[in-house]
Amino acid sequence: MKRLTALLAVLLIFLIPAANAAEPDRVNDIAGLLTDSQEERLRGQIEDIAQEYQFDAVIVTVDSLDGKSAEAYADDYFDYNGYGYGTDADGILMLVSMEYRDWAISTCGRGLEVFTDYGLDYMSDEIVPYLSDGDYYSAFECFLTLVEDYLNEAEEYIPYDTNNMPGGGAVAREEESNWLIFVVGSLIVGLIAALIVTGSMKSKLKSVRPQVDARQYAGNFELTLANDLFLYRTVAKTAKPTNNSSSGRSGGGGSSSHRSSSGRSHGGSSGKFSFV
Asked: Bridge-partner residues for 107, per DSSP?
């Protein structure tokens, strides 16, 4: 009996720390921008992403960056809090700092492939207006919705990039397919209707006798005036490449990367927002 008690005591020593070593929270609203119910809804979205794609998504709000850049703060928060799936720490983190209205998105592991520079530019264009309006929940909800969309596109097709921008992905391809089906169906219906009409007209021409000369069909027709009319012309235009100075990206597509203080490779983007 004493031996059994001692064995149980040893097991408890090892089990209690393991039970206390909880998973790090994926929604860390340190700046107090969200309600409890909003945090729970965001955690639900994050859990759905994790189960479907084995990919980590994290949201962090802080009052200050403690002297760091938004990029460095986001990278370090991801690295030193144990986020990321697998050996490559696949994941993405969105940071909002209120002191100087900074935001940053940090990608890691598979995230560098899924979230290209141009894809991140599009994402920030969608999110930042919510931040400027002070609608932080909608900003984070939009972020997670786009994360799921990007992961799905990369899995089903290719990552969003210069040759496959958001808005021209799976949804657009489905709409294009539906439109093509509609057009083909309309052509078939039109052809059937035309055959019916021409067949009916042909049946009414049984009393007309065939003529030897085509001019006999024209009867008294006489051409009195002939003009050449210019109807239209075809002009081919080539778009002039633009330089988007706001993004600071090169035009080659793909993802740029950098090293965080932990030595891990990260991608991402950052910027500022202001209240409208």
From this structure: 92, 267
Q: What is the pTM assigned to this prediction?
A: 0.65
Q: Beta 56-62 vs 265-272: how paired, if at all?
A: unpaired
In contact, 60 and 96? CB cutoff 8 Å? yes
**Helix, coil or strand: residue 242:** coil
pLDDT in tens, 156-183: 999 999 888 886 544 444 444 454 555 5
Mean pLDDT of all residues in the chain? 79
Q: What is the CATH number of domain 26-163?
A: 3.10.310.50
What is the rounded distance in angstroms from the CA atom of residue 150 to the CA atom of residue 67? 32
pLDDT given at position 23: 81
Helix axes 136-156, 170-203, angle to 10 degrees: 70
**Alpha-helical runs (H) found in the chain:** 2-20, 36-53, 70-80, 111-114, 117-132, 136-156, 170-203, 215-218
Residue ranges per structural domain of the chain: 26-163, 164-194
Task: Give me the residue label for tokens 């596109």.
Answer: 153
